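ok trying this again, last paste got cut off
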Amino acid sequence: MTTPLELVVLDMAGTTVLDDGVVEQAFQRAAELTGVADRMPWAEALDHVRATMGQSKIDVFTYLSGGDADAAARATAAFEGAYAEIITEQGVSEIPGAADAIQGLKDAGLRVALTTGFAPITREALLDGLGWRGLVDLALSPIDAGRGRPAPDLVLTALLRTQTSSVSAVAVAGDTVSDVESGRRAGAGFVAGVLTGAHDRPALSAAGADAVLADVTALRGVLAQRELLPLITTS
């Protein structure tokens, strides 16, 4: 017998929030400003950034700096500043249909939490820019949970804060291998990858996704098909 879901944990950039290369741009600006990745060719640094999309930014910069914690902290601050500048310049948009998808999950009686590798100041700027403060039940950054993805901490913190009954009553969806691995490590009842962000179908499947979806708007239907949402119909 399947466990009915109570909580859906969704990633932000690339899953519910349109990225369109903004994260990579912010990483590049931060690297140029601080020299944090000067120990390696930029192409190599960018490959690492792409491979670790979804992870805590301080962890990524710690690797790029060769373990220099002070340099990583400076670069992370520069990244957050650069990201804020870019979304001020370009605006912020949802993945088409994301807000309606979230509302549909909530209408079915589910709680919805957003998680991100961004610092709280950037997360809050995104929520404000999208007008989503009243839409979701919770939004978490690595500093709120302990460790960033691919550790299970963000998913488990969302479970605890929403008083969800068990990990099997949690669904997780995200666009990166780290999102999928985080859900798997947390023991979530259902883990989906989406193809609107950093990583492709083979990578998401190999990481352990139960399903790989075109985008977050497909999540409700897939959960209904699997009888994980008894309150949801596919009509």
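PB: full thing came through this time. The CA atoms of residues 21 and 197 lie 9 Å apart.
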